[in-house]
Amino acid sequence: MAELITYRDAVARGLAQEMRRDPSVYFLGEDVAAAGGGFKATKGLFEEFGPERVRDTPISEEAILGAAMGAAMTGLKPVAEIMFSDFLATCWDLVAVEIPKTRYMTDGQVTLPLVIRTANGGGLRFGAQHSQAVENWAMAIPGLKVVAPSNPRDVIGLLAAAIRDPDPVMFFEQKSLYPTKGEVPDGEIVDELGVARTLRAGQDVTIVALASMVPRAMAAAEELDEIGISAEVIDLRCLVPLDTRTVVESVKRTSRLVTVEENPRLVGWGAEIVSIVGEECIWHLDGPLTRVTTPHIPLPSADALEDEFLPSVDRIVEATQKAVQ
Amino acid sequence: MAELITYRDAVARGLAQEMRRDPSVYFLGEDVAAAGGGFKATKGLFEEFGPERVRDTPISEEAILGAAMGAAMTGLKPVAEIMFSDFLATCWDLVAVEIPKTRYMTDGQVTLPLVIRTANGGGLRFGAQHSQAVENWAMAIPGLKVVAPSNPRDVIGLLAAAIRDPDPVMFFEQKSLYPTKGEVPDGEIVDELGVARTLRAGQDVTIVALASMVPRAMAAAEELDEIGISAEVIDLRCLVPLDTRTVVESVKRTSRLVTVEENPRLVGWGAEIVSIVGEECIWHLDGPLTRVTTPHIPLPSADALEDEFLPSVDRIVEATQKAVQ
Amino acid sequence: MSATETVEPTEDSSPEHTSPEEQVWLGLYRQLFRIRSFEERAYRLFMEGLVKGTSHLSLGQEAIAAGFGEAMRADDYTFATYRGHAHTLARGTPMTGVMGELLGRANGVCGGKGGSMHLTSVEHGAMGSYAIIGAHLPIANGAAWSAQVRGTGQVTVCFFGDGTTNIGAFHEALNLAKVWNLPVVFVCENNLYMEYTPIGDVTAVEHPAADRASAYGLESIIVDGNDPDVVFEVASTAIGRARDGGGPSLIEAKTYRHGGHSRADPGTYRPDEEVAEWRARDPVPTYRQRLRDRGVAEGALAAIETEAAADVDAATEAAKAAPPPAVEAAYTNVWADGGAAWRN
Amino acid sequence: MSATETVEPTEDSSPEHTSPEEQVWLGLYRQLFRIRSFEERAYRLFMEGLVKGTSHLSLGQEAIAAGFGEAMRADDYTFATYRGHAHTLARGTPMTGVMGELLGRANGVCGGKGGSMHLTSVEHGAMGSYAIIGAHLPIANGAAWSAQVRGTGQVTVCFFGDGTTNIGAFHEALNLAKVWNLPVVFVCENNLYMEYTPIGDVTAVEHPAADRASAYGLESIIVDGNDPDVVFEVASTAIGRARDGGGPSLIEAKTYRHGGHSRADPGTYRPDEEVAEWRARDPVPTYRQRLRDRGVAEGALAAIETEAAADVDAATEAAKAAPPPAVEAAYTNVWADGGAAWRN
Ligand SMILES: Cc1ncc(C[n+]2csc(CCOP(=O)(O)OP(=O)(O)O)c2C)c(N)n1
Ligand SMILES: Cc1ncc(C[n+]2csc(CCOP(=O)(O)OP(=O)(O)O)c2C)c(N)n1
Ligand SMILES: [Mg+2]
Ligand SMILES: [Mg+2]
Description:
The complex is a heterotetramer, with two copies of chain A (325 residues) and two copies of chain C (344 residues). Chain A is an alpha/beta fold and 325 residues long. Chain A has helices at residues 7-21, 45-53, 61-73, 92-105, 135-139, 152-164, 213-226, 244-254, 269-280, 303-309, 313-324; strands at 2-6, 25-29, 54-56, 77-84, 115-120, 145-147, 169-174, 181-185, 197-200, 205-209, 231-235, 238-240, 257-264, 290-294. Chain A starts with a strand and ends with a helix. Chain C has a single domain (15-318), classed as Thiamin diphosphate (ThDP)-binding fold, Pyr/PP domains (Rossmann fold, 3-Layer(aba) Sandwich). At the A-B interface, helix 4, helix 5 and helix 9 of A face helix 4, helix 5 and helix 9 of B.
């Protein structure tokens, strides 16, 4: 049996699945309880698990992540919501300097089984301060695992994996995907972190995408098919751990790589994929290593502009054609 | 005439040069006034320019950068010190979300001529929270210029350029370089942002380095020479604007690229250089695109460990040999 | 009353015949009514799908922006939040550019790059609307610091909500403002809720701003934020003190938003009686009645209303008629040279 | 007195003959003396170049760590700063591991990965030393929250300096602690300076912590941080209240560091008279004298001193003898699986 549910509802379902299973999972964030979250992605949790385990907080992002970290050190498995990933900047010290380094600095005395969930990315005309795709910020920090699902099934499976993982996991929900639907099997869903998924086999080029860029990459692959280019599409799913094997093996077969990311141009995760391939498969390459990204500008709010700058199906098609020439 | 001065003294000299010239330059930070800064890099400024223009602040990094930003919007040219670059995380919202986006979001109504100076990088056994090289964090943010000098002369010339630049500039002083000395000509020194410097010509491989990695890359090049490998060494000096022309032209000649950076492995600036080369010079390449980085771990404090993990001359030599094979 | 109601032509409402006091009243009413009219229209346009993204209205809270708007000098600085239509208009920013920005058109004050949450009109002292909670408090300090060292006598006014008092930037900004004796007035619009959560549920003190004033060596000030006269008076006092070198103030103005937090929110988490009680204290009709009771001519009020309605209509038409920003515009104004280049 | 001074063997100092009260006094003195002896040695080792990097001593401030150390239950949690030798030792962490960590040796409590600024001994409730100002206050809340929901009765004590009261994390943490009624005690060690700047120059209020307590609905508490008895008493009260569900406290303890901020700092920015005045109030000899005046046997004190000196010697020898961490150790314990792999 399977059900068609939204990416948004998958978040609540994944959380509920784990909270039922493990009483040490606690959930906290701004307006997450009775209100069900700014994006209504956690509706029903407060009703089911009550105010002890589903906690509203003040607008205090450092206090939220501090609470999560201290609780994780001492026996709980907290899931903290940072409403928009842009707001990670207001608690970046916790994200980048405390949480990921403490296990190492204490030589393993402290373990931090916590998850930070956040709504990431653009496409909703929210302007430059509410639209950033910042999964590359997290990837740059040693000690963080980084997950970004592209569909409702993966939201559940990867969220479960993240919660069960004994290390800190940054869980990026792409906000433009919340209303999208996908099939979800009945029963418990638990994935493994660090396993990419090849969504489409192809011979001419490997397209590596993440989150909201996955459906666009798939659409581009269809169009490319029509003009005789056979694209393999890989949904990375996690940036850390990174399934380099799947990417490298694919590129060795196709000889060409295109990455598609929402990050602005400079030092996005695409650069890391390109660099790994450029070091490890250089003799297999038969075309330029190509990145499709958002240009290196803050995201404008007007719909006419925003649509132009997030990587579109057209831009992916065009870039891939060039890479294959 | 020229003088031999330290990188540390060059900071004060550069600041003084600009503060004498332009009365709208103000300098603020923690313990920067009478105390001359945590690294004593701003000694003498308080005595020369007084408490109005050289200001001590509370331990309030957001308040420091907020003051700088608001002042820059309204007629001053503030230089703000964030004592260690690690502390940028405590004011990352100002750095990544307010300062770089405001000119764009206001469509140019607001201009932000400000400089954020900070001591960056490892090598002093300060441990994981005081040793990070985070210039890649800044490079990832559209709207920031990013500078990291490798020697006293450049400290002055690039600091002057940064202060005169009408846009926000992140100025990374590599803290392990503070005691190092270099020749500095008399009189005013002003450079241009975005111009890399080829420190050494070579035919076999292009080594691109920044800040503390520059002297190590140069030393490696000498060693490589002895074993018959002729390395061209480029000091990037700025990450934004990025002098891609110098890099791309060099790689087109040498056919091989090695980047040397202090950033941890994933999505450091080396990945960006590699990606640009991998896209624009793919047909010229004759070896794997190679990055030398700090491993993807928090930096350990013990001297025995820290020395092992910052890219050493040996590791650069070894990696370059491999790239040239 | 509706803005198109007939004006009694017999009463004399020309400014020459009004007392200075009455001119202040009319100024306040003009602010109130213009903001209200603009936002009611904006709401309609959201519902029609003409405004994309999100938006946060000040319906019900207008008296605060109005009172401060009237108390400020033309060269003073305002820092506002994502809920900043009112504060931007209160500085005299023409409606057309604001409406254009909401609709994402080329004629917007920010050329369509900012949107509802980032309205800015430097020309009018509206130094920006900031969408990250608390971020603009330290920035407001910076503008105040600059005015202080430049010796211009300009005062900075910084608006924010009750929920904002719990974020770190609030604390850092208030402390520095006092230590540096900055000419800045911090105005907490306490509308009793952060987004959907009552402020009392997440705050250690009853009055989120006023009960913290002493932590920064400041006087505790609470005012009725629905009373334009009261706001005007406290604003004038605080701004005057700041201008005279007396340093910062922190003012907590109690108010209420009629609608939800943002476009998507029906606001149903609030008790009906609470909503009803505050709606009865709606500053626009209440103040109109007060002015009538004080003998202000109906015609004077009606003239303001007619003008506001016409301005809203004109702004709407202009915005609708304006083209979307050209695609190339997205590559402008990252840098001061006008461009977006990061490489040579 | 020096730790090697001869002990009068005639006085009876065995624990069996001491009153419960006297046992507390001796416990406090033992803490004081051990911390002092350890840090004096550490300072010497810095000067000899055996400790690399930086270090921040509590010389002069020991009474605070001592008083709290004695008042805490074995399973309570401590959160400390980069100036955390004292607080780590006060929980009973053996000196050997602490000294080893300072010297960057394999036998260090953190295997050499943490260093002076990041001492941690979870086994002893020393939950870490944090080097980013303010960061550990929110984290301490988390441990307190966890104890609260797990119902263990554990209390969290979080130490920090006066300068730390001006950073945003302080504000966020104090507010949340009160709102959630957490079993946490925040202890501000006000040593009058941030690094080199007098706290009064950068703070809006006179007592940086106590004058802010009311902003979080808390009682204003100031104590003499150089008096171990006073600290012990206030600590016991606050910890007891927290344990009984009475929620958080904020305590400001006035004290002074004898030396500079960190290894590199001679501390010359401080007026001579100020230094002299505080040195006269040095808690170690002062408390020793007080105990003697109370009739505590010289032998009891001397025994403590002898033991501490021996422990410091042993810790020093062990650390010097220990090898540096193996290079491979750098690749361990990034992740809970013990490794550092980020790819397959
Ligand atoms: C740092 C940060 N956290 C959270 C948000 C999301 N957010 C936007 S408005 C809001 C509520 C703000 O409440 P208040 O300060 O009372 O202002 P009001 O909206 O009531 O005017 C929140 C939580 C944000 N924009 N920035
Ligand atoms: C966020 C941050 N800013 C600045 C520093 C640098 N710094 C280290 S200690 C210190 C002074 C702290 O003063 P206080 O809180 O009074 O503690 P004390 O050192 O006096 O014990 C500063 C500014 C830091 N570590 N973290
Ligand atoms: Mg509110
Ligand atoms: Mg201090």
